[in-house]
Design a protein that fits this description.
Belongs to the ABC transporter superfamily. Sulfate/tungstate importer (TC 3.A.1.6) family. This protein is an alpha+beta fold. It has two domains: about 220 residues, Rossmann fold (3-Layer(aba) Sandwich); about 120 residues, RNA polymerase II/Efflux pump adaptor protein, barrel-sandwich hybrid domain (OB fold (Dihydrolipoamide Acetyltransferase, E2P)). It is built from nine helices and 20 strands. Strand 4 and strand 5 form a beta hairpin.
């Protein structure tokens, strides 16, 4: 199965989605973006709930654009599950299934056998979402659309369901559009990511590529590359050289000409501690903030020299304990050239 969106546009008085061009094969495409960026509108267009003002939605070449929702072969899993509260879990799943055996198979796969005879309104959040997914899969959809199905769940349940959903969704062998604002969820579940802002897709690629090589400053900041700086290209070659606020920074070779203003980024977890000879792109500065996040420490460092930029560093507890630095202390950082990504030219 292959889902295609070609030039899809939907306009409202204060918002416009598109133009959207997407090709989704038998894979999970995680649509990642902030609240209000158009993710749910995108799903609604594919599902036939919303009619686009322009463009085409097709499945295996067949135009779906004018078809009603019930004739599209698409199923939408809502954030709250949208179960029938007066029915049991079994009856909810059976509503879309063609046989009791299908209900039993899905219940086993999604581990909801113990709650099948409970009324839907007595289920926990995790149970409710698994029953909702079972009901959706019981319809044997050609396309599965998921609208932040884990958003309202507690963190431990969300982590567990992320682990369980990945193999299940991958096994369906149909296009799956999975909408979320949570980057951990997107990378855990998506074969590819489509990063959306203000109704436009900034980048579509494998999760590793999106995180390592963001296409725009928005993608960099939204996916956690909070070290995002403006600089000028001053030399090119096997390694390019940037002037960053009077500092010389070596980066991988770039196609941008000398004199070009660019953005460059480095993820906080790739910033190192310059504790000996051989460190590259050394930046000395003062620790201005420290936050312990449970499994890691986040330091904010103000570089010496008067720049208004700050560098954020993410350290494991053993590394932080060995550093023996706290707010107000001096520290020397290293920005490894191979971990730096030059995003591109930027208008000044």
């Amino acid at each position: 199965m292959s889902l295609a969106l070609d030039g899809v546009v939907k306009s409202y008085p204060d918002f416009e989605l598109g133009p959207i061009d997407l090709d989704v094969g038998s894979e999970v495409l995680a649509v990642l973006g902030p609240s209000g960026c158009g993710k749910t509108t995108l799903l609604s267009v594919v599902a036939g709930i919303v009619t686009p003002d322009a463009g085409r939605v097709s499945l295996d070449g067949a135009d779906l654009t004018g078809r009603p929702p019930e004739e599209r072969g698409t199923v939408l899993v809502f954030q709250d599950g949208a179960l029938f509260p007066h029915l049991t879990a079994r009856e909810n799943v059976a509503y879309a299934a063609d046989s009791p055996d299908r209900v039993a198979d899905l219940a086993e796969t999604l581990e909801i056998e113990d709650v099948l005879d409970q009324p839907a309104d007595t289920l926990s959040g995790g149970e409710r979402q698994r029953v909702a997914l079972a009901r959706s899969l019981a319809a044997d959809p050609d396309v599965l659309l998921c609208d932040e199905p884990l958003a309202n769940l507690d963190a431990p349940i969300k982590r567990r369901l992320r682990r369980e959903l990945r193999p299940l969704l991958s096994s369906l062998s149909i296009p799956v559009l999975y909408v979320t604002h949570d980057q951990r969820e997107a990378t855990a579940l998506g074969d590819r990511l489509a990063v959306v802002e203000n109704g436009r897709i900034h980048q579509t690629d494998a999760p590793e590529a999106v995180f390592a090589r963001p296409a725009t400053p928005f993608v960099a900041s939204f996916t956690g590359s909070t070290n995002l700086f403006r600089a000028e290209v001053v030399d090119t070659g096997a390694k390019a050289v940037l002037d960053w606020g009077g500092r010389t920074i070596e980066v991988p070779s770039t196609d941008h000409a000398v004199g070009t203003t660019v953005d460059f980024c480095i993820r906080p977890e790739y910033v190192g501690i310059a504790d000996g000879a051989g460190a590259e792109n050394v930046v000395a500065g003062t620790v201005t903030n420290h936050v312990f996040e449970g499994d890691q420490h986040l330091l904010t460092v103000a570089p010496d020299g008067g720049t208004t930029d700050v560098v954020r560093v993410r350290l494991s507890p053993p590394t932080y304990d060995g550093l023996d630095r706290s707010t107000g202390d001096q520290v020397r950082l290293s920005l490894p050239p191979e971990a730096i990504h030059v995003i591109g030219e930027r208008s000044v």
